[in-house]
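Re: duplicated header lines in exported structure tokens

Our pipeline writes sequence and tokens for each protein into one text file. With two proteins the header for the second block appears twice in some exports. Here is an export where it did not happen, for reference. First protein block:
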Amino acid sequence: MIARSKFFGVMVATALWAGAASAQCFTTQLDYDFRLGIFDEVLGAVLVNPSTGENLWTGDMGSTPIWTTIPGQASAEFVDADNDGNGIDEDDHLDLLAAIVNGGAAGGSVLNALEASNPGAVAAIQAAYAANVATLQTIEITIENVEIDSILDATTDVTTGSNLNLFGGLVDEDIPSLWGINEASPEDGLLYSADGTGLLEASLIEILAGVMTIGDPAGADYVQSLIAQIMLTVIEVVLPDLLNNLKADGAPLVSTLSLPNGFDAYAAGGSKAFTVNCAGISDFDESITVSGLDADIHIDAQDICNALQNFIDNFDCVTFDCESALLQASGNLNGSGDTNLASYNNVAATTRQAWMGLESILNPPLEITSFTPDTTVLTGDEHTFDLDFVEGAVGGP
């Protein structure tokens, strides 16, 4: 069974936080350079083979890297890459959104030109992003028709964020939500606790809500394939944990469970949209003994398949408020001139700040495009380096 290693995840994610926090924007602001810059490391801290410690996202011990199973994914990383294939790098596209969400009122110094060019666009985008963050945290995963056969038999659905009551109250358990906001303590959320730091949950919220606000069909397809791989691990880890909580006469009803076929459970369809390959999933069966009594757990492969497919199918412009006409590659943010893609490629030459200027975002947020080369310096030694200063615009952020 492929599962997460909490200890390993905590160590890696904590180290990441210590190293990256100094480059992050204010916590109330979106910073996709930060989120995407660490997202491969966050996934690598969660998607771990517990037997070997291998980072399954990158396959650093020789296994097939998970990132290669996601259609369009160019590498293990998420920066300077057009993984969804819409012609605009994800970090640039999401930071265009961030400039609007972070930009304050429509009449402010950053967004006044955009508001003048396309009245109402700023408010619509800001409202859509806030709504999508809220919507995302209402989506849970349900595994239907979990059969529990013992002295008493039951068939029930197991849903995150709900109560499970069986056998006239002999089993009465609150199942944690995927999302920390729905729990009394955020760390009790299943995605929050997946890495022990909340970095996975925070990254998923900002990235998924951002992509769905942009509303590009290619982006939605890509998100489905990405979230499918993440949720497979959640199911592999969460399902045993949930069933371990089922109790009969005060004793654990289930000891250990594992799902078959691991990350081979998916196949890409003709597009980037993911369709769960049900043929790659086997029935789930486990027989155990509790206080001398046999108990059998059975879940049909089709029900496992349906749980995964139903979850990722939420990521569309019916469930979410997509501002496609304004933000997708073929949209037109400022309502005049070229499409977003044309101004990005033909005029701005994929330079983020120039592109934002062409879309009427004045004094856009800075993008750090190069860093001082890695250098090893011993304490007590002198090290000299040069800085160049670039004057900012008056009234800029």
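Second protein block, exported in the same file:
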Amino acid sequence: MHAGETVDATIPPAFPPWEAYLSVMPKKLSVAILLLAVSALLSLLTQDWLSALLSGTLIAGALKGHEGARTMLRFFAAAGAANAAFSLVFGPAAAADFVGGGALSAALIVGAAAYGLLQHGYVFWALGQQDVQQWMFDKSTGGLDAPDPF
């Protein structure tokens, strides 16, 4: 709750507790967590267990408000964006030269790299915003009024 706001006692507590929790969380952080969860799910589907475990751990840390998790997520987002940008520039040529694929292979590589660049760029940007940092600080110090679903 922010300074100057009052609590309406006639509103019943949200059920499930996720509703109240997400109503306090900045929307840009919710979107970033959703994008990270999609990546973790894709890691599970491709049986990249270490990546899925690391992603899940960092997502849980971010939802708990840990500054270390936010810093690591920003680092990995920057590295992922750099990798995606590299793939966006050099991927189509590699598809034509090394894979032997044609326009479809190049288009798939460009699409995947563009998605990766947008996803990682958004996560990096969102986790650097002041309201997200303030929410995470409040969350880690117990300053949020919303019930904690964890």
